[in-house]
Amino acid sequence: MIGYGVASRSMVYYPQGNNVTLTTGSPDTSFSGRAIFRNVLYPVYYLMYGDFGDERTDLDNNSGTAWATADQVLLAIHMIFVNILLVNLLIAMFNKRFDEVNEDARTVWHSQQYLFTREYFTRSPFMPPISLIYNIYYLSRMLVFFIRREFFHGSADRSAKTFKIIAINKDLLEEWREFEGASTYTYALNEVKILKAASQKFKKGSDSSSTQKETKAGNSEDLNEAADNVRDVQDNLSKLNSTIEGMKLGFKNYFM
Fold it and tell me: Region (Disordered): which ranges (predicted)?
């Protein structure tokens, strides 16, 4: 885009080729950011949206000149490349969206398949209303084995239905077990870290509270000591005043 803008503007603004002179009106050739954006980048940028402005009109009015013919060829090549890039961008966006929709659809399909399989796994093999008899039998069986397990320490019902996904490939089953073990270890490690952080925070809080208590106790002791010192000073001052008064009386009696 910048290459086409620089090449086309240099040919369009070439004075001897398109009769642009100081008398007919010179273009803005000042080398500044505003002039570059207005004369080079903006016209080429809006070509992507189909806004040609005066581009086609100026080229058609000067169809006999060499610069107009060369600019027409450059414009055609530029528009072809721009359209190819826009189509590729559109295809990439559609591919990304299609992958996201496909992934969401597979997730929903697997979830529905799981629910559908589990529903028919736990459902009675007989049709209603005969299935009511089977449900009563199955409920009674569960109650009997519950009483045996809780009160007589008997074994569990080994023939009871258990819904579990079992991999056909043993290696895949082993990978599942390793993944479960690693996930359990990671979860336990995170819980231990959280507990340690909480205990350290509580310990720091208790230490700070004990330090504050010690500081308060020390401050109260200092205040008590200062109050005792003030009392001693007051007592000494009262004694000194009584001594001075006694000396005054003695002087008066002596001189009189």
Answer: 204-225
